[in-house]
Specification:
alpha/beta, Gyrase A, domain 2, Four Helix Bundle (Hemerythrin (Met), subunit A), Rossmann fold, 3 domains, 6-stranded mixed sheet, 16 helices, about 45% helix
């Protein structure tokens, strides 16, 4: 089957790139251009025609990549045409009339590259991350993973486990033979080394996931404290409805921001109060759930009437900033107890101390986003497999100590399998769909 898709963004553009991959790609080029494919990897100007009528669609560049020296590992071509909807639709329609030629599924080109051994699974994921990166720090992280350091590290640890497994299986196959002491010492040292390394990787404060997904900030507080106004102010646009009517915000409203290159997701939540309204109660429950998930909480209260409930006090910890709004209405000094907290006294109405609040947020971001070359985990999938690998290694050590080598070997195989699933060294068909469905069509 030959696949095709628009690989550039939809909409009007100067140039559009349509990608084709499959064993009949050369036939597709001949049908569209009435000529043989051009020289490999040489951009060649060709007339592109409708297949059934030979009517000219456009004049554009053809790039021909014979397999296996292509992105997908198959015969592949890219057609560069003018980026109007009419031209793209005409080319797509002509391609759809060719037998055994269909529109590609999301991520199918990269999936083919993985299946044909052109890239490993980590690199495939980093391609998706690079395409969707919105900030500089996200781009840098995606490039680091693409360069292969993470894959090299996981493959190195996996090779160590495979070597241990070969020694254990030798003991199982030849039970009457005692393993030399130096081999037993090597097994212990190697398994301990892998365990220590995995623990260090897991103890990363989830920085990689924060960079990829965004740093989560939840704005919480009682009704009418100015939460929605603060969100709109930070976003420089009207994201949330602002009203003097209490309980206007009933659902969680999110917006994505770029703060000094750091990706941030800010959530405006329903005002926390006692309510008999079922919908508002559900909104308050969502607010508290979002507070639990947040990396930073902005607890917003009024300066004149600080409605500081026990629920809000419980949320005020080292990952929270107390934002005291409406300071323009303040007639006396704030409560001394409140002064002791990590707080900022602001007035959104008069744009007072907003920069001070943003500076506090930035300081929190910088502390959470301490990056290094040791960031290896960027997705929850990686973390789960590493944790399962660690669990099986601990089980392996326990069974090895009592010389239950048969069961110990099985734990070691499972540990090795989980490391392999990170980079795609084993049968991972069950996870491929979820990974590549996150891609855009044409990649």
């Amino acid at each position: 089957m030959t696949i095709y898709a628009l690989s550039t963004g939809p909409g009007v553009s100067g140039v559009a790139v349509i990608r084709i991959s499959g064993k009949e790609t050369s036939k597709v080029i001949r049908l569209l251009t009435k000529k043989e494919p051009p020289k490999p990897r040489v951009a060649t100007l060709r007339k592109i025609n409708k297949i059934n009528t030979s009517e000219l669609i456009d004049e554009g560049l053809i790039l021909w990549f014979p397999g296996p020296e292509s992105y997908t590992g198959e015969d592949m071509a890219e057609i560069q045409v003018h980026g109007s909807k009419a031209v793209i639709d005409a080319v797509h329609f002509s391609l759809s009339t060719i037998e055994n030629c269909r529109l590609a599924e999301p991520g199918e080109f990269t999936k083919l590259a993985f299946q044909n051994g052109k890239i490993n699974l980590l690199k495939a994921e980093s391609v998706a991350d690079l395409i969707s990166s919105e900030t500089e720090i996200q781009r840098q992280q995606a490039i680091k993973i693409m360069n292969g350091k993470s894959a090299d590290e996981f493959n190195f640890l996996r090779d160590k486990l495979l070597k241990i497994l070969s020694h254990i299986e030798a003991k199982i196959d030849f039970p009457d033979e005692d393993l030399p002491n130096n081999i037993l010492d090597e097994i212990k040292n190697s398994s301990d080394e892998v365990i220590i390394k995995i623990k260090k990787i897991l103890n990363d404060q989830k920085v990689g996931e924060r960079i990829r997904e965004g740093f989560k900030i939840a704005i919480l507080g009682p009704t009418n404290a100015g939460k929605s106004s603060l969100m709109n102010h930070l976003s420089n646009r009207d994201v949330a409805i602002v009203s003097e009517i209490a309980g206007t915000t009933r659902d969680v409203i999110e917006t994505h921001l770029n703060i000094d290159g750091y990706p941030v997701i800010i959530s405006d939540t329903a005002g926390i109060r006692d309510s008999k309204d079922e919908i508002e109660k559900k909104g308050i429950k969502l607010s508290l759930n979002r507070a639990e998930e947040a990396d930073l909480r902005l607890i917003v209260i009024e300066a004149k009437n600080p409605d500081f409930t026990d629920v809000l006090k419980d949320l005020l910890n080292e990952n929270a900033i107390l934002v005291i709004n409406k300071s323009d209405l303040l007639e006396k000094d704030i409560d001394p107890e409140i002064k002791k907290t990590n707080h900022v006294l602001i007035s959104i109405k008069e744009n007072k101390n907003i920069e001070k609040l943003i500076l506090k947020i930035k300081d929190n971001l910088k502390n959470k986003f301490i990056t290094s070359d040791d960031i290896l985990i960027t997705r929850e999938r990686h973390r789960q497999h590493l944790q399962l690998c660690l669990d099986h290694l601990n089980n392996f050590n326990q069974k090895k100590e009592i010389e239950d080598f048969d069961k110990a070997a099985e734990d070691l195989r499972l540990a090795t399998r989980h490391l392999g699933m990170i980079v795609g060294k084993v049968d991972v068909e069950e996870i491929l769909g979820s990974i590549f469905n996150d891609f855009c069509i044409g990649k």
